[in-house]
Amino acid sequence: MRSNAMAYPQRLVATTLFAFATLVMAACHGEAPPSSLQPESPTRPPSCANVSCSGNGTCAIANGSPSCSCNSGYRADGLSCVPDASTASASLEVVNNSIYDIYYLYLSPCGSDTWGPDILGNKRLPTGYSATLRNIPCGRCYDLKADTYAHGKSATRYNNYFSCNTTFTWTIN
């Protein structure tokens, strides 16, 4: 007579052999193993592999999910970094390649009826020189105008979009 101590190992071996045989038979016949025997698919850890943060930040795993840590002047919007209009600005570089010195420079919102104040103040931009104006509100459209001393000659440029954290260059010939 057999003892119960031997019954458990025999049942374990028989169950294991049955499961193995079922898998082998299924594989030989091109079938998927029974669902009760299929392993669960592993859960992949979160990855930054396909997250570029729009080229304006770096991806990091935070609280188990990818997120963007954005450069200065940008803010996270999902898995992108977009310009933060509250801190970002644009610059305007004016290159004077004309034969006249520029004494007046105007920057106004696109379509405005007035040019606004002269942004050169009491300075001038001699022929052959350039000047860069910084901290211009970005993400907006501007019209530009440059004038000579006696307002005899002027150059204008309309509908110029100033992107955040960039320099818009206007070359006057």
Report on the architecture of this protein.
Helix content is 14%, strand content 36%. It folds into 3 domains: 4-33; 53-83, no CATH class; 90-172, Sandwich (Immunoglobulin-like). The protein is elongated and about 80 Å long. The protein contains 1 helix and 10 strands, in the order H-E-E-E-E-E-E-E-E-E-E. With 173 residues, the chain is mainly beta. The strands form 4 sheets. The chain has a 3-stranded mixed sheet with strand order 7-5-10, with no helix packed on it. Strands 6-8-9 form a 3-stranded antiparallel sheet, with no helix packed on it. It has a two-stranded antiparallel sheet with strand order 1-2. Residues 12-26 have low confidence and may be disordered. The longest helix is centred in the N-terminal third of the chain and has 25 residues, at 4-28. It has one helix at residues 4-28; strands spanning 57-62, 65-70, 74-77, 80-83, 90-96, 104-109, 130-136, 140-147, 154-162, 167-172.
Write a brief caption for the model:
The protein is mainly β and 173 residues long. It has one helix and ten strands, in the order αββββββββββ.
